[in-house]
Amino acid sequence: MHRSEPLRYGYFGPQGTFTQMALASWLSEDQDALAAARPFGTVALGLDAVRSGEIDRVMVPIENSVEGGVSATLDALNSDNPLVIQGEVLVPITFVLAARSGTTRAAIRGVGSHSHAWPQVRGWMAAHLPDASYVPTLSTAAAAEALAAGDRAPYEAAVCAPMAAEVFGLEVLAEDIGDNASAVTRFVVVSRPGAVPAPTGSDKTTVVLYQHDNHPGGLMELLEQFAARGINLTRLESRPTGSGMGAYCFSIDFEGHVADERVGETLMSLRRVCADIRFHGSYRRADGRPVEPTRTTTDQAFEDARTWLHSLRA
Ligand SMILES: O=C(O)C(=O)C[C@]1(C(=O)O)C=C[C@@H](O)C=C1
Predict the structure, then answer these.
(1) Where is the Prephenate dehydratase domain (predicted)?
(2) How many C-alpha atoms does 65 have within 13 Å on its Cβ side?
(3) How large is the ipTM?
């Protein structure tokens, strides 16, 4: 693709997902790109479209403040052909209970929604619709879409974003049904590997670490590399590698940019102690909070130490 051509975006859809809201926020100053963005019914399909070059960027959910990591994204990002994160967006999560017009609460026997949404409304459901069974759907908006499309959905109501109820012309039977009013989901914009966004002083880096073997203190050996250089972790998850029972890798987000000296030194040390490291990008934090190194972990401190070592060797 020629450089001056606009970037082609996709998102985990259909229309009306929280992911589409995240993309709208990311592209708030590029309405043309937003209007042209393509929905993909699963995270894996969206990431594959980036891999194959069909689109340049895709917005996908990666982490929820109540339910934790979105394993479909963590695993698909890290499959054979690793992709990189270009940026992140935080979206406050507000759920509604939506149904076809005229549906009463008493008529609801099943409720459709995404598997990450359901645990976030479990308390409300137990209190208000204790007999309704949960029907998993590909996304919150897919649940709303199927209800609107006809009477063949195996449920009578959907748990979705207020926007999905509006897009698919459903009636809102109850608002704000999330058990945790401050729930937030973190979404990431993903691309093929290429130029890393320039450091901004408020950056995060994502990596996946693979150990040589499972041994006492193995995880501590990885974590002490970060601790020794004053690097704060913001997410740590163990994911099965798929190669056998008990074989795990560690998916980690930490503060700092690959261009920072302390991050470079940490990655070099990790490279020595790990069997493999997947780099999934350095990108600006959504909250814009500055990442301040301590006096002993500034770029200058590392440079001074290196100059000193060179002087000894000379
Ligand atoms: O189904 C959607 O609307 C999504 O965008 C996915 C998703 C998720 O994967 O966590 C996003 C936010 C909510 O926490 C629930 C579902």
Answers:
(1) 8-192
(2) 14
(3) 0.96
> Which CATH number fits the domain that encloses residue 86?
3.40.190.10
User: Do residues 163 and 277 share a domain?
Assistant: no
188 lines ligand 1 (CB under 6 A): no
* Interval between CA 197 and ligand 1 midpoint (Å): 26
What is the mean pLDDT for each group of 10 consecutive residues in the chain (314 residues)?
79 98 98 97 96 97 94 86 94 97 96 96 98 97 95 92 98 98 97 95 97 93 97 95 91 98 98 96 97 94 97 96
Q: Does the beta carbon of 137 lie inside 6 Å of ligand 1?
A: no
In a domain, 285, yes or no: yes
Ligand 1 contact, 19 CB (< 6 A): yes
Domain count, the chain: 3
Residues 169 and 87 in one domain: no
Q: Which of 18, 94, 160 to mutate to test the pocket of ligand 1 (most atoms within 8 A of CB)?
A: 18
Cβ count near 53 (within 10 Å): 10
This prediction's pTM: 0.94
Write out the H or E segment, with its range, that includes residue 143.
Answer: helix 140-149
Strand-pair category, 96-99 with 157-160: antiparallel
Six token digits for residue 273: 């102690």
Tokens 């814009």 found at? 288
Best residue among 43, 94, 185, 189 to mutate for probing ligand 1's pocket (most ligand atoms within 8 Å of CB) is: 185
**Inside any domain, residue 267:** yes
Nearest CA to ligand 1 atom 11: 18
Helix (H, G, I), strand (E, B) or coil at 267: helix
| Residue listed under structure tokens 């993909």 | 40
Q: Is 140 in the pocket of ligand 1 (CB under 6 A)?
A: yes
Does 12 contact ligand 1 (Cβ within 6 A)?
yes
Assess whether the C-beta atom of 46 lies below 6 angstroms from ligand 1: no
Q: CB count, 10 Å around CB of 234?
A: 14
Nearest to 201 by CA among 299, 281, 267, 292: 292
Q: Whose CA is nearest to atom 3 of ligand 1?
A: 17
